[in-house]
Structures are given as structure tokens and as C-alpha cells.
Amino acid sequence: MASLMQVRIALSVSPFWVSQPKWRHPYLPENQQSHLNAGMDSITRLLFSSLSCFCFAFIKNAAEFVNRMTKHLPTIKEIAQALNVSVSTVSRALQNDLRIGLRTRMRVQELAQKLHYIPNQNARHLRQHRSFTIGVLLPQLREEFFSLAIAGIEDALEGSGYQVFIVQSRDKKDREVAAVRSFLNSRVDGVIASISAETINCQHFSDLQDLGIPVVFFDRVPKDIPAHTVRCDVESGARAAVQHLIKRGNSKIALLNGPEFLEISQERLRGLRSALSSAGLPSFAHFEKFTDLSSADIACKMEQLFSLPEYPEAILAFNDYVALEAMLWSKKKGKMPNEEVVFASFANLPITHFLDNPPVVSVEQFAYQMGESAAGILLELIKKTGSTDALAFKEIMLETQLVVH
């Protein structure tokens, strides 16, 4: 405001009229001429004083308007006031509604563009009784497998108007329950989830479904509740990986698995036993190790395996990260990976391509496609929310692919 006052003072005391040559009347006496000049000076001062007030008011109003526009996003109401039209006219013009005349539409859209107007999506969502938000619950964001799944989810939702609200459980049941509660508080329209390593009871997900919020699970899916699921045929993939190891001449094959109560861990175990049985080879319980997926537990189970009188020739790991932890332990113990002990794993993540000595074989699980399919099912479910034509529980099973390195 100091700058505005300076403008006003400068105009008020401007010496403009002083520096100008005095106007002289050719027939007036000198004394009358001086009276005339004095009158002219008074008129000039009055004019400049009025001009300064006008300029000050103009600049002040302009400054207030700019400040008002820059302190918050402009609203439809403000655009309507500026153009002297109704709020509904502005709303329709912004949607290019043909019921509004072309000239008015152009005026509204031009001003909206100048003011950087952004539509208030919350108001639109409120009218449609939707948040246009989808909750995505994952065990670990740092795992490349789940990053690929997120990419599939986002690509499937592109153009649908939905935003993704991502939360990680970090493989903890209490964080997973808290995330579900957060989804409820945020009024998400649906949820895509892969359960944590600690989750045995999935009642918190059932509560979501009972409240009319559809849930689709992928990869790590529950077995205690009916659900829409997208997963890979893990048992078949495990069987194929073990058969490949057997063909390489490995007969003593161990499984470094995930948490025992995860269905995908049981599927890996069944695949291992099936392949060994088909080849006429015994399966040993002491070669079947479940882990909580932590580095410490993986190292502990590797210690147990290699403390046996006869340790394994090959290890099928739960995923690439478990394989990398096990290979690191082997190197520290002086056992070169894929020489003294051969490794196979699940996921076939791009990170393994940068290893000098990756697992000899990987089971590709197509994380991107799983995320994409889960999002597709969820969109279909959301469209049917509140409809009597409910969608029956759907299960999509993707085929795995064996990738030899």
C-alpha cells in the first residue's frame, strides 16, 4: 500500500503546472493577468488532485482484484459477477453447452482461461455421489513387482476420471486394517488390494464389501472370504521351475517360501511336491522353509538349510527379492550362487537383468497385467454399484511363463 500512497502524493504535488509557461492575454493589464494566472493555477491544481484520486482508486481496486485472484483459485461465482451473468450460465458455458449463445460461451471461456480457472471436481463428485478415487493397498512399494502392478492399474484407469490413493501395509496386519479404515473415511469408490504377510483373517475387507465398496484382490488373495481375484497359476509355475532344475541334474531341491498362511506360498509348495513326485524324487520337510520375507529370517532359514548333513543342490525362492537375499548369504559363506547351489525364483523382475549371476530360471508372473485386469474388474463393479444386477465373484487366472537366464 505504501507504493500506492507514493503514487497519490507524487500526483498531488507534481510541479507539472509550475514548469509550464504562463498563458498571457494580449489585451489584459498586468494585474488582471496575474489574477487570471492564479485562477488557472487553482483550476490546474484541482484537476490534478481529482486525477490523482481517480488513479489511486483505480490502482487500488486493480491491486485488490489481482490479490483476490492470486490468493485463491477463481470460482464460477466470481466469473459470473465479472461478466454480469448467472452462475448456471457460466457453468453451462464452461461445459460448452449449446443452450448458451456462442458469444457468451466465448466470453466465459476466455475469462476462465485468463484467470486460470480450474473446475471444482469435489462439487461434481458430490452431485454424482462418488469420490472418483480408488484405494490401492500393497505390501511394499519398494518391490518392483508392485510398482509394475501400479503401472497397470494407472494405465487401466486412464481416461476414466478416477484417481489412485496408494497405501502400503509394509506386510503388517495393523497397517492394513488402518489403511482400510482410511479408505472408508475418504469415501473411496473401490479398492484394489494385495494382502500383507501377516493377514490371516480378512474380515476388514468383508466389512468394505458389506458397505457397498467393491474390492478386487490380486497376487496375494484371501482364502477365507469370497472375493474378486486376479492371480497367476503359481502352482503350475512352481512345477515348471522345479522340472527345469531336475533336467539340469538337480535332485535335492529346497523351497525358500513366503509366509505359511499365504495361499500363494501353499501353491508354491504344492508345485514343488508335484514336480518331485512326478520325477520319482522324494520331498523332504526339512527342505521346505517358510519365511516372513525379512532379510533376517531369510538368512536364518538359509543357515538352517546349510547346517543339514546334506544340504540342497538347488533352491526355489518365493520371489526375486528372497532369491537375492539368499544369494547374498551364500556369497558371504563362500558358496558361489549357481555353482555350489543353484537358484530359481518367481517374478522375473527387470532388476535381475543387471545381475552378473541371476537365478538360472525365473517364473514370470506378469505383474503389470494383473494390475491392469484388477482395475478393469473394479471399474465394472463400480458401474454396477447399487444395481440389482450384481456381478458374480470373478476369478482371473493368468498363465505363468518360464524364463531361462
List the helices and strands and how they pair.
Layout: H1 2-12, H2 16-19, H3 30-71, H4 76-83, H5 87-94, H6 102-114, H7 121-128, E1 133-138, H8 144-157, E2 163-168, H9 173-185, E3 190-193, H10 203-210, E4 215-218, E5 228-232, H11 234-247, E6 253-257, H12 263-278, E7 288-290, H13 295-305, E8 314-317, H14 320-332, E9 342-347, E10 361-364, H15 367-383, E11 395-398, E12 401-404
Parallel strand pairs: 1-2, 1-3, 3-4, 4-5, 5-11, 6-7, 6-8, 8-9, 9-10
Antiparallel strand pairs: 10-12
User: End-to-end span in angstroms?
Assistant: 72 Å
> Biggest sheet, open or closed, and with what strands and sense?
6 strands, parallel
Mean pLDDT figure: 84
Query: CATH superfamily assignment of the domain at 234-367?
Result: Response regulator
Number-wise, the strands total: 12
Order of helices and strands: HHHHHHHEHEHEHEEHEHEHEHEEHEE
